[in-house]
């Protein structure tokens, strides 16, 4: 193949409007292709190179930093309404590499690779010496707290039995001794008040997800649990991006292919959330 | 071999194009 002239790349300003549009398109892509954890938001564009593409268009090669928000990826709340996780709650940063094609004024992601990492304990304690840190999600106290909280939620529900989708966040609080957890749930075809064997329950064809926050407080001779769950409107049967598809973004362990998680980006605004159920 | 375009050093300080601004805080 005749070697054409060496392609030279252009290095625009990282805060150039076009660069920012490409970066925002890339972050939207991540948020609609990640199957667990929280939505991320653009924090800083580290590097950009723009390569001409034959016969037309150009490819933005981007390195960007993101920050975790408090919205779970299953939460249909628009990203612009999601709060950035503050430092005192033990922030989580994403480091992403993208290649984004710009053609006919449209941006489409060709490649995405992200890794997320929590802030260091030192940094958290610099701003808040007594703040709790993130705990391993398989810690026995965390697993127990989620189990007790979900049982309490289902016990007061007069609707579907909800099963656990994933534990997304946990902290072991020293004073008062307690465990704080956040987890995602999904409605099943069982009635909460009649379920004797949850293993026999199946997720609804029209997935209905929820997101719960709970605190299990140890006290003399027992424990107290407080749990709040927000149940979202059922997802219309949208074609789901299969987790093992080549373009699935790697921002953590891929969700179980048997339970594809919907891309919420294209739900009509009217379909969004119902009020929280509180226990 | 990619020919990296030479940044012609014009008069005055060259604006560092990257990294860009921090929108929230640095972890």
User: Mind summarizing the main beta sheet of chain A?
Assistant: 5 strands, antiparallel
Report the radius of gyration of chain B as a whole number of Å.
14 Å
Chain-averaged pLDDT of chain A: 86
Q: How much helix is in the residues of chain B? A: under 10%
Calculate the terminal CA-CA distance of chain A, rounded to whole Å: 68 Å
Q: What's the shape of chain B?
A: elongated
- Whole-number average pLDDT of chain B? 70
Number of strands of chain B: 0
Number of strands of chain A: 9
Topology, pairings included?
The complex is a heterodimer of chains A (279) and B (27).
Chain A: H1 17-33, E1 38-52, E2 58-72, E3 92-103, E4 106-118, H2 121-127, H3 140-156, E5 160-173, E6 178-191, E7 209-219, E8 222-231, E9 276-278
Antiparallel strand pairs in A: 1-2, 2-3, 3-4, 5-6, 6-7, 7-8, 8-9
Chain B: no helix or strand
Walk me through what this model shows.
The complex is a heterodimer of chains A (279) and B (27). Chain A is mainly β and 279 residues long. Chain A has 3 helices and 9 strands. In chain A, the strands form 2 sheets. Chain A has a 5-stranded antiparallel sheet with strand order 5-6-7-8-9. A 4-stranded antiparallel sheet of chain A has the order 1-2-3-4. In chain A, strand 3 and strand 4 form a beta hairpin. Chain A is globular and about 75 Å long. By secondary structure, chain B is largely without helices or strands. At the A-B interface, strand 1 of A face loops of B.
Quick rundown:
The complex is a heterodimer of chains A (279) and B (27). Chain A has 279 residues and is mostly beta strands.
Question: Descriptors for this entry?
Answer:
heterodimer; A: four-stranded antiparallel β-sheet; 9 strands; disordered C terminus; B: 27 residues; little secondary structure
